[in-house]
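User: Let's play a game. I give you a shape written as tokens, and you guess the letters that built it. Ready? Here's round one.
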């Protein structure tokens, strides 16, 4: 029995956005129905290195899936970090990660794969699921605040479920904006713009690490994917914007600790009564998604381990089909 080693190119090659989005939606549904186990994300804080480690284990069982009529189950754990000095000091990405994907029947490690590429893909897929349920059906413009690596998968994934033809990308770094524009030139009408211009689009994704809100107002019917906050103290959207919107979260414990709402929640500005519900409730039909053209919706996404496991399932199954990756004997049995 072999373990597959899947590098970033393998993860990219074996990820189809329609399937990945469906798998992440399956994961949200399984979590809502009680068919998943996901212990709280644990942190190891390393201020001496200006970084931290995060451990994210999960198991989920999907009885009915658009991917596989017979259903599937999967387990895994992602070991991921945020080290903000990495690029300048070591010429490494700020975020690295390793995903161990295991057979839940016997715990055999089926694959070890690049967690950084996996994280970018599944984060885009989560935003696409939320956008599909909470944005206008005819949404055609996408604003993105933050032109880092996450911005690319936001556009790729959201354009899978909405007919996006106009994109406004905003970032303090003009070179990063130009790289983004150059990447998608010919596929979309994409240009650089201000935060305010991006915020007037039908859909807005914020993917920055800021701790002081940079978006204070959006369009009257904008759907916002707040993707940047993933640690205590991070905060991209103004409190009034959050309070006035229909607010949907991915997980109460994670969002109140480290999501977009963590700061106003800890300060008592925002409470449980201000949260409309979790995305899983909307996916399974327990609560409505967008019901009219008016009003702002916000999805607070912290990134869940069930998303990583679902994404790893898609990657692994396709890698087997396509004979990709490097097999090796993990154990001498």
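Assistant: Ready! My guess for every position:
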């Amino acid at each position: 029995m072999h373990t597959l080693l899947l590098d970033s190119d393998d993860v990219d090659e074996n990820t189809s956005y329609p399937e990945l989005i469906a798998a992440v939606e399956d994961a949200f549904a399984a979590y809502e129905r009680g068919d998943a186990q996901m212990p709280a994300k644990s942190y190891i804080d390393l201020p001496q290195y200006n970084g931290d480690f995060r451990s994210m284990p999960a198991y989920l069982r999907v009885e009915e899936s658009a991917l596989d009529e017979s259903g599937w189950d999967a387990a895994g754990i992602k070991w991921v970090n945020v080290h903000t000095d990495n690029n300048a000091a070591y010429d490494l990405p700020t975020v690295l990660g390793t995903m161990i994907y295991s057979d839940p029947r016997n715990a055999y490690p089926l694959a070890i794969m690049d967690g950084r590429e996996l994280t970018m893909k599944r984060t885009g897929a989560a935003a696409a699921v939320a956008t599909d349920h909470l944005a206008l059906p005819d949404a055609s413009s996408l604003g993105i605040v933050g032109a880092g690596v996450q911005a690319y998968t936001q556009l790729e994934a959201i354009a899978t479920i909405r007919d996006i033809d106009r994109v406004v990308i905003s970032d303090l770094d003009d070179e990063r904006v130009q790289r983004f524009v150059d990447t998608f030139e010919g596929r979309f009408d994409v240009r650089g713009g201000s935060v305010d211009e991006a915020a007037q689009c039908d859909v807005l994704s914020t993917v920055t690490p800021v701790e002081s809100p940079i978006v204070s107002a959006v369009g009257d019917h904008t759907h916002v994917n707040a993707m940047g906050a993933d640690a205590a103290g991070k905060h991209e959207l103004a409190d009034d914007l959050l309070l006035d919107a229909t607010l949907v979260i991915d997980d109460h414990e994670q969002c109140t600790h480290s999501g977009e709402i963590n700061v106003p929640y800890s300060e008592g500005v925002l409470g449980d009564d201000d949260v409309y519900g979790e995305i899983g409730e909307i996916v399974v039909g327990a609560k409505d998604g967008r019901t009219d053209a008016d009003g702002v919706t916000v999805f607070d996404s912290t990134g869940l381990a069930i998303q990583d496991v679902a994404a790893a399932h898609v990657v692994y199954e396709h890698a087997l089909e396509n004979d990709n990756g490097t097999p090796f004997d993990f154990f001498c049995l």
